[in-house]
Structures are given as structure tokens and as C-alpha cells.
Amino acid sequence: ISVTDFGAVGNSHQYDTTPIQSAINACPSPRPCHVVFPSPGTYLTKTIHLRSGVVLIVEKGAVILGGTKLEDYPKEFERWYVVLAEQVVNVGIRGGGEINGQGLEFVKRFDERKNVMVSWNHTGACLGDECRPRLVGFIGCTNVTVSNVKLNEPAYWCLHIVDCDNTSIHDMSIYGNFNSPNNDGIDIQDSNNTFITRCNIDTGDDAICPKTYNKPLYNLTATDSWIRTKSSAIKLGSASSFDFVHLLFDNITIFESHRGLGLQIRDGGNVKDITFSNINISTRYYDPSWWGRAEPIYITTCPRNSNTKEGSISDIQFINITSVSENGVFLSGSKGGIIRDLKFSNVDLTYKRWTSYDGGLVDYRPGCSGLVKHNMAGIIMEYIDGFEVRNMNMRWSEEKSVGWDNPLDFRPSTVNNISFVNFQSSLYKKNSLQDI
Ligand SMILES: *[C@@H]1O[C@H](CO)[C@@H](O)[C@H](O)[C@H]1NC(C)=O
Ligand SMILES: *[C@@H]1O[C@H](CO)[C@@H](O)[C@H](O)[C@H]1NC(C)=O
Ligand SMILES: *[C@@H]1O[C@H](CO)[C@@H](O)[C@H](O)[C@H]1NC(C)=O
Ligand SMILES: *[C@@H]1O[C@H](CO)[C@@H](O)[C@H](O)[C@H]1NC(C)=O
Ligand SMILES: *[C@@H]1O[C@H](CO)[C@@H](O)[C@H](O)[C@H]1NC(C)=O
Ligand SMILES: *[C@@H]1O[C@H](CO)[C@@H](O)[C@H](O)[C@H]1NC(C)=O
Ligand SMILES: *[C@@H]1O[C@H](CO)[C@@H](O)[C@H](O)[C@H]1NC(C)=O
Ligand SMILES: *[C@@H]1O[C@H](CO)[C@@H](O)[C@H](O)[C@H]1NC(C)=O
Ligand SMILES: *[C@@H]1O[C@H](CO)[C@@H](O)[C@H](O)[C@H]1NC(C)=O
């Protein structure tokens, strides 16, 4: 079924909402049905709702363009998406084309450090400065496939998977303005059996971000991808009220991001059985208004505030990791949220500075004690019981290691049962660093 058969014009300024929704509604749901957006064409629309069995085919050269007005979205903030699928099965989007949220239209003031964004909080639908529409959402769905489309310029989160089972996201290109806050790449919330592969994600905010608000999250796999972000490339949390179990991240390149692999657990959920393997990382400092302090690996479990519990972290492995970074690894459990059974093997860490931002801060945000002055070190450890390191190589720039105190920094009162086998730490000659 083609949206043009229902009168869509695709001229980028006339709304095609009614033709698009009529085409979707003409599908013999729940039987399989393709709704085609022909190329060329830029189809401006208010929120469109998928039905069971419907797959949107956005042809290469065609664009679904999200509206930028409040009245383009439903009343409830929970439904503010350009494309929304709710409580349906066997749905998807593909075809080689693009979905664009016109995120730049939501910038109130452009700023290299961080753009100031429009907020629709006067509606009371949502609060603070995070009150903007998301791009694509699947809520309470089974069997979702999103592949071969470009998701561009979301005004807020880009691809949001909520309370779903069996989701496949592959061969995607996701792009959000590098200076815009909250334009996360893929947020996977309260969902099971999610498979992400061959994605290119270049965003201001977190790129792949599993979260738990109302249910646990089981079985997430993300592989064969490339990421750049001004925040965390991979981040568990910070919304973390329920458990995260059995997650695998493999064969991923993380380029010049503010943080590489992060577990930012704040709300009492427990994290276990997580593997990060075959990952190359480079991290650097950006403006400190963005969370992240150039850590290639970051784990924290401090409670968000005095009303939240601490979650525990156990059975976490980092295998075959190389990084070049401006700051060290930060592993910080908490009194009630000890990090246990943590393993690093074949980990190669190169430390050098290349931006002029200040070092010497550890970052407990959000909440907790915020940004705290602390000497720089190769690995800072707090509240850990059971850490096994095998084959670790730390290399330090000869000239620029000023300000870095120790390869390993910990207090024996909170750190117990650690072992290092084949641990090397050495200076790197100036010239040999140039090609890193
Ligand atoms: C609404 O958002 C703006 C940012 O765009 C912020 O300055 C303001 O404090 C917010 N108001 C409320 C009530 O949250
Ligand atoms: C999901 O897809 C599989 C086949 O790929 C099918 O067997 C299963 O019934 C589908 N689930 C639902 C809820 O339709
Ligand atoms: C995911 O699996 C867990 C454990 O079986 C279950 O409690 C939860 O409801 C499941 N979530 C979904 C979205 O199916
Ligand atoms: C998930 O997908 C697999 C493989 O396509 C299928 O066998 C299974 O039935 C699906 N699960 C559900 C709950 O539909
Ligand atoms: C997680 O995946 C395993 C297979 O790898 C499966 O046995 C288990 O049922 C899945 N858990 C959930 C909650 O779907
Ligand atoms: C790793 O991912 C890249 C794509 O980013 C792919 O080209 C390559 O084949 C993958 N390597 C392996 C060993 O799967
Ligand atoms: C990481 O770098 C090594 C050495 O340059 C290379 O062999 C490997 O393929 C890279 N892996 C990824 C995921 O980029
Ligand atoms: C780690 O790298 C080694 C050498 O390249 C490889 O043999 C091994 O399979 C990798 N381990 C994992 C878990 O991918
Ligand atoms: C030390 O930690 C390892 C896992 O890292 C665990 O297998 C072992 O039982 C721990 N030993 C003690 C004495 O707690």
C-alpha cells in the first residue's frame, strides 16, 4: 500500500498525516502489510500510529519528517513520537530512507559547548528542560524489526524501545547534532531479547542506553557497530530501578567519546552477567556540563539521593579492550552496592592528554556527590570485592603524564580480593605515540 494512493504529496510543507494514517489503517491488520513511502518525497507528519503486522517501507530518497509544533503530538507526553507503535506485534520500519525529527528547530540557542533547547514544559505534560518529542517509539510490542533506515536529528531521544520482547535493530545509521542534549541514539527500556547489530551512531547524548524504570531488562546483544558521542557510548542506567541481566557488547568501535563503557547504576537495580568484548575505544574531554570525564570504562553504584537504594554489580567481564584516553578507568561501588566478580582480560590502556580541559575530577553524576577533585590514576577503585585482571598493559605518554599519580589508586579499607596477573605499566616514547 502506497501512501501516495491515499493522497500524500511529500512536498515537505503540507501535512501528510491523514493519508499516511489512512494507508496504515487500510492494512488488513494483524496480517503482514507494507506501507510504502515512495521516493522522492519528504512527508511531513504529525504522530503516526502503527498497527499489528504493519511495516513501513521508507524508500531510499524518501523522508518522514516530524512536525515541530506542540499540536503535532498527542496530549500525553508518553506518546510524543513521530512514529509510534503501541501494544502491537510483528511491526517494523525499513527501506533505505530516512526519518527526521528536525531537531535543529528545537534549538533555542546554539552553543558549541551545549545547545540550549526549547522545552514544552509550559504544558505541564513534562518538567524541566527535557520536554521535547522523541523520534521513533515501540511500546509494549513483540517482534519489532527496524533496519536499513537513517534516523536523523531527533528533538529528544531517537529510537526508544519500551516494554518489548524480540526486537531486532540492524544496519541503521543514527545521527543527532553533536551539541544537543538528550538526543540519545537507542534507548532500550524494560525490554527483553533485543538484538542490535551493524549500527553507526553519532550523537550528542548516550548512544546505546539500556534503562529500567518498571521492569527488568534481560538479554540484550549489541555487536559490530561504530559510535561517537559527547556522552557515554554504552551506558547502563542511570534509570535503574530493576535488574539488568545477560547483556553482551561485542566488536564495537568507540571514537572520541566523552565516556566509553559505562554502568551508571543509581536506583537499586542489580546488574549481572554482562560481557564487553573486542572493543576499541578513544575517549576525550568535552565541556563538563556533559556527564563524562573521558573514562574508557566507568562503573558507579552510588545511590541517586537519600531515598534510593544501592544496586549491586556482579559477574562483569571486559575482554580484548584497547583504549586511548585522556583519563583513567573509574570503578566505584558503594557501601550497599559493592562491585563483585569483575574480570578484565587482555586490556590495553594508553593514556595521553590532547585537549586542554582540566583533569583531576571524578564524576559521580547524576546525584551522589557530583564532580569531586581527585588525583588522576590509571584505575581508581572504590568498594570492590573480587577483581581479577589478566594481561593488562598501561602505557603513558612520556611528557604528558604530569598530574597522573599512580597506575592503581585504591584504599584497602574498601577494596578486597583483587589480583593482577601479567600487569605492565610503562612510559611511551613521544614519537611512537604520534600514530596512536
Ligand atoms: C522549562 O524549560 C526551560 C528550559 O527550556 C527551563 O529554563 C525552565 O526552568 C523549565 N521550567 C520548568 C517549570 O521546569
Ligand atoms: C513472533 O515471530 C515469530 C516468528 O518469527 C512467531 O512465531 C511468533 O508467533 C511471533 N509472535 C507474536 C506475538 O506474534
Ligand atoms: C522480561 O523477562 C522478565 C523475566 O522473565 C519478566 O519479568 C518481564 O516481564 C519480561 N519483560 C517483557 C517486556 O517481556
Ligand atoms: C521471538 O522470535 C523468535 C524467532 O523469530 C520466535 O521463535 C519467538 O516465538 C518469538 N517470541 C515471541 C514471544 O513471539
Ligand atoms: C534470555 O535468553 C535465553 C537464551 O539465551 C532464554 O533461555 C531466556 O528465556 C531469555 N530470557 C528472557 C527473559 O526472555
Ligand atoms: C566487526 O564489525 C565490523 C563492522 O563494524 C565488521 O565489518 C566486521 O566484520 C566485524 N568483525 C567480526 C569479527 O565480526
Ligand atoms: C581494534 O584494533 C585492533 C588493532 O588495530 C584491530 O585488529 C581490531 O579489528 C579493532 N577492533 C575493532 C572492534 O575496531
Ligand atoms: C580475544 O582475542 C583473542 C585474540 O585475538 C581471540 O582469540 C579471542 O577469541 C577473543 N576473545 C573473545 C571473548 O572474543
Ligand atoms: C575472590 O574473587 C573471585 C572472583 O573475582 C572469587 O571467585 C573468589 O571466591 C574470591 N575469593 C574470596 C576469598 O572471596
From TrEMBL:
Q: Name one GO molecular function term.
A: polygalacturonase activity
Identify the InterPro entries for this entry.
GH28_Enzymes (IPR051801), Glyco_hydro_28 (IPR000743), Pectin_lyas_fold (IPR012334), Pectin_lyase_fold/virulence (IPR011050)
In Swiss-Prot or TrEMBL terms, this protein is called Uncharacterized protein
Listed A to Z, the keywords are: Glycosidase, Hydrolase
The family line of this record is: Belongs to the glycosyl hydrolase 28 family.
GO annotations under biological process? carbohydrate metabolic process
Locate the transmembrane regions by residue number.
none
The superkingdom listed in its UniProt entry is Eukaryota
Q: List the Pfam families hit by this protein, alphabetically.
A: Glyco_hydro_28 (PF00295)
